[in-house]
Amino acid sequence: MRRDEEHRKRSGLLWDHLNPDQRCLSLESRRYTLLINVPMDPEVDGLKWCMETQIEIHGNTYERPWRCVRDDGIIAEWITLSNEPTCKTFWAHHTKKECNGYHKRIFEAKLENHQPPWDNWQEMCISTPSHFNFGHHDYPS
User: Fold this and answer.
1) 3-state secondary structure of 94
2) Residue 4 and residue 45 in contact, taking contact as beta carbons nearer than 8 Å
3) 47 partner at 20 to 30 Å CA-CA among 63, 82, 92, 111?
4) pLDDT tens-digit profile of 62-90?
């Protein structure tokens, strides 16, 4: 392990720009990719180096990528799970509708801060909790 670390430093592992996907995966979640320029060296295990790469995104530290793939270099992929401002949808304008069974009422609300056409509205809908009527609901039913 120590030998590999020293070799990585001497080889000059290079990074390209961190690129966020346009679309959100779910509430506060987005995929980021990064091209790693791994030197052409038979002793270099680029995928291993990639999987040991730590990065900071929006103030959160990710110890390693979600996955690394070989494609014109090595591409690292991270999935953020919080603090993704443009992926923070919320429900607004709750409207009471008819009753639906004993002690049950239907409410409608509008999904706000949704970024069409990129975001999958169904994923954003099912992953966005609602707070209204002194209650918390993890997802629509």
Assistant:
1) strand
2) yes
3) 82
4) 889 999 998 777 889 999 988 888 888 88
